[in-house]
């Protein structure tokens, strides 16, 4: 199992902003400005999420889930997977120095 995890750790999971930018928003046929208005967020906030510079928060996940009809969990799950992957990559040396405890 560890080998599988390490092998796939090199491939970044999609940031939810990337998914929104490449798949979800284009499928609606609406402009990004219209999507931002419908979400009741600023265009800049949406732009930052789409550029993967801002995380999808719980409140934004609620808004996205309501607008697109898929609920908030999928958006938060995507963000969590991305965050875990990024932290593992950013902390690679630190994590390598931690010796796991042996269970009795």
List the helices and strands and how they pair.
Blueprint (H helix, E strand, L loop, with lengths): L1 H7 L7 H13 L3 H8 L3 H8 L7 H11 L4 H18 L1 H5 L8
Helical content (DSSP H or I, runs of 4+) = 55-70%
Q: What string, H for helix and E for strand, traces the elements in order?
A: HHHHHHH
Using the CA coordinates, give the radius of gyration: 17 Å
Strand content: under 5%
| Secondary structure tally: strands | 0
How is the quaternary structure best described? single chain
Cα(first) to Cα(last) distance is 21 Å
Main beta sheet: none
The helix count comes to 7
Structural class: mainly alpha
- Tertiary shape: elongated
Runs in which pLDDT lies below 50 for 5 or more consecutive residues are 1-7
Give the rounded overall mean pLDDT.
92
List the keywords.
mainly alpha; 104 residues; single chain; 7 helices
What this model shows, in words?
- The relative contact order is 0.14.
- This protein has 7 helices and no strands.
- The model is unreliable at 1-7 (pLDDT under 50).
- It has 104 residues and is mainly alpha-helical.
- Helix 2 (16-28) crosses helix 4, helix 3 crosses helix 4 and helix 5 packs across helix 6.
Summarize the structure.
With 104 residues, this protein is mainly α. Helices cover 67% and strands 0% of the residues.
């Amino acid at each position: 199992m560890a080998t599988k995890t390490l092998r796939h750790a090199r491939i970044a999971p999609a940031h939810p902003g990337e998914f929104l930018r490449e798949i979800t928003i284009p499928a609606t046929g609406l402009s990004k400005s219209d999507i931002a208005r419908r979400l009741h967020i600023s265009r800049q906030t949406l732009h930052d999420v789409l550029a993967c510079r801002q995380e999808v928060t719980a409140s934004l996940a609620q808004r996205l889930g309501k607008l697109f009809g898929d609920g908030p969990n999928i958006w938060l799950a995507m963000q969590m997977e991305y965050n875990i992957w990024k932290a593992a990559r950013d902390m690679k040396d630190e994590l390598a120095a931690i010796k796991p405890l042996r269970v009795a």
